[in-house]
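hey can u check if this looks right to u? its 344 residues, i copy pasted from the old doc so theres a chance i mangled smth
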Amino acid sequence: MTSEIGDAGEKYRDKIRDEDDLDVSWQDLYDIVNGKPVYRSVPVKSNPNITFGSDTYGNGGSGSGNGGGRGDSGWTVLDRSDILGVEKNWGIKFTKRGKKEKVTLEFLVGKRGYQENQDETLKAMLERQIATGEYDKKGFHIDVQEDDVRYNTVEEKANPEESAHFIIVRDVSGSMSTTEELSYKAALYIAIGLQEMYKDKVTRVYVRHEDSAEEVSEEDFFKTGPGGGTAFGPAYRTVLAMLEGTEYTTKLNYPRKIDHEAEDVYVLHISDGGNWGEQDTSEAVDALGKILPKVTRFMYMQIGNESNFANTMRGITNEKLKVITTDNEPSIENVKKAVTALFN
């Protein structure tokens, strides 16, 4: 960022943050996650242009210049460095061996191989001389025989790489219309952090739910607005199906089977807690009980405190379960606070 805006960056940084530089529409979030420029207007005079990610569309101009399709006035964007500063404080942990593997060559020593190991050969010679009494008679001397020769032999060794799945489950029911901004921003923080810090080590998985649930692409996840009723049971059963390799609803080309025994699995559910009632709560808790032994961590973030589902979750004693509630305040500071609390 600093290299692109020069000294003007320090001048406007505080002002941009005061105006909440995460104030973007949900239609733009997918572009942000994928490193494309996303712009919004900031009410300051002569605001410099700042781009997020690769500037494939060109900078917005201050008049009728080459605005790149997003508008033709002064624009600025999400402060990526600020997000990554928060992410460093809560990075995920890899506790399992990892499913992805790389092969390394390990050099061993044997009687037959590819190249003589002179140190091991001399060691074998000396051991022979000592055992036969030759060393006592003649002292150390070079007398390499065929049986003394040792070689470097090469063995392929598979070393598991750190890998994990991170499943983000988001409530998109009608009641989320008043909390969707915070919901999107929290999910965005997580997605950007995973992409920037772990690259291909962490597979991001997206599930949205109303009174039904389905796996969706990253693009659909960040472009779907609220609507419909609410049920948590279908969402949790979808996650469980991924872990067990059973059938579930997906908008992708194929259902996934997550090898939870080989790699870490993190789950985050974001909701306002307004599920339908006792039966659905019971079904959700039952599914959660089967999920928890299979995952590294399950996090539940409830926006607002009008529902008692957070209390139900807190009644479950399991060190893998993290439950937080957050005010419905979509400011950057509240987003930071909520995301950090999830991983503490």
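The longest helix spans residues 180-198.
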